[in-house]
């Protein structure tokens, strides 16, 4: 018996950032959270979401309301692949790009929520079920505006909590200032603690190569987004020039982009973001593609959702700790001894606070 999608609703919620977040190119102003809620002919209800960090949320909402939700009604809720491809095909004029991918992600995650409910399984099991607990690293103590003493204190705090590492923003005007900040952290935490850096696409290839060499003695876990995401050739040159792994993914919006990076050896850590790549359906394809290249997946942001996906696949290496949904959820992600645990509750595993969400609707 076919189970059809009978209703679909989209709305926009603003969630205030929990702490000041700055990097080399921007500040995290607010989380514009685009929700999609669907109902099915057999009485199930799914909720999915995507996000922006301050702009474009209404454009995504418009794409959903003016086009995609109408296409969604009447579709077979159990045929997630078919639904995703039909919706994608209906938006050819705007693909590949952020607006379409974010809109698709909000729908796709809602359909996976329904699929989990029908199967009676949590997301991490339905998506693969490799293991339940995964390593965690912290980003909240590494923002660019923080002075050295606060960076060191944050890293030591994460280490005491049992986390496996921290990530620090780089991109100061002078590379020696970046080096000074990183060296102070490395001296404080020792050699058995992962230290990663993130340049947020702020450098040229020449400057990224220079700074990677400057950081050679620090044993960095990776250099994240050193160059603009469309500069694949620059990433190839950088990857060939350094032993430090190069991480990319949060600013990539299609499976094909990841394929080209992997095929050319332009990245050795994949940071695919479930919202920006178009949902759980393409996220899993990217993760399996990376596995075929023997490359780890360490997704960007959305820890409350990514914990289940990292747990689902064998090459899921890390979850990034940036709490952002506490204002609209009743329970936090489970963390024990520095490891994140995928929820065992049926569905996406996010315990939404319906009243708090409704109070924050802006469109």
TrEMBL record:
One of its GO terms (biological process) is carbohydrate catabolic process. Its cofactor is Mg(2+). This is Mandelate racemase/muconate lactonizing enzyme family protein. InterPro entries: Enolase-like_C_sf, Enolase-like_N, Enolase_C-like, Mandel_Rmase/mucon_lact_enz_CS, Mandelate_racemase_C, Mandelate_racemase_N_dom, RHMD-like. Keywords: Magnesium, Metal-binding. Residues 148-245 form the Mandelate racemase/muconate lactonizing enzyme C-terminal domain. GO terms for molecular function: hydro-lyase activity; magnesium ion binding. It comes from the Bacteria. Pfam families: MR_MLE_C, MR_MLE_N.
């Amino acid at each position: 018996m076919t189970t059809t999608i009978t209703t679909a609703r989209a709305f926009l919620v603003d969630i205030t950032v929990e702490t000041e977040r700055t990097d080399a190119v921007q500040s995290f102003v607010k989380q514009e959270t685009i929700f999609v809620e669907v109902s099915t002919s057999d009485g199930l209800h799914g909720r999915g979401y995507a996000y922006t960090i301050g702009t474009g949320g209404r454009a995504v909402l418009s794409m959903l309301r003016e086009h995609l939700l109408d296409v969604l009604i009447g579709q077979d809720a159990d045929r997630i692949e078919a639904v995703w491809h039909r919706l994608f095909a209906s938006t050819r004029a705007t693909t590949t790009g952020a607006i379409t991918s974010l809109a698709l992600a909000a729908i796709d995650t809602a359909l996976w929520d329904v699929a989990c409910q029908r199967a009676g399984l949590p997301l991490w099991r339905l998506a693969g079920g490799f293991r339940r607990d995964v390593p965690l690293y912290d980003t909240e103590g590494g923002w660019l505006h923080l002075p050295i003493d606060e960076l060191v204190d944050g890293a030591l705090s994460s280490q005491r909590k049992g986390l496996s590492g921290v990530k620090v923003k780089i991109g100061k005007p002078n590379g020696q200032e970046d080096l000074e900040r990183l060296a102070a952290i490395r001296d404080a935490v020792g050699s058995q603690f992962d230290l990663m850096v993130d340049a947020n696409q702020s450098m040229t290839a020449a400057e990224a190569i220079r700074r990677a060499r400057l950081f050679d003695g620090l044993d960095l876990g990776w250099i994240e987004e050193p160059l603009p995401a469309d500069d694949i050739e620059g990433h190839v040159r950088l990857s060939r020039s350094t032993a430090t792994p190069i991480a990319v993914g949060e600013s990539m919006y299609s499976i094909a982009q990841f394929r080209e990076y992997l095929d050319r050896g332009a990245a050795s850590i994949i940071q695919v973001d479930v919202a920006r790549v178009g949902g759980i359906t393409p996220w899993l394809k990217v993760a399996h593609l990376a596995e075929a290249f023997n490359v780890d997946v360490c997704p960007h942001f959305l820890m409350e959702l990514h914990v289940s996906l990292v747990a689902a696949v064998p090459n899921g290496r890390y979850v990034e700790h940036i709490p952002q949904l506490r204002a609209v959820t009743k329970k936090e992600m489970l963390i024990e001894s520095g490891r994140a645990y995928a929820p065992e509750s049926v569905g996406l595993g996010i315990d939404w606070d319906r009243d708090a969400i409704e109070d924050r609707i802006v469109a």
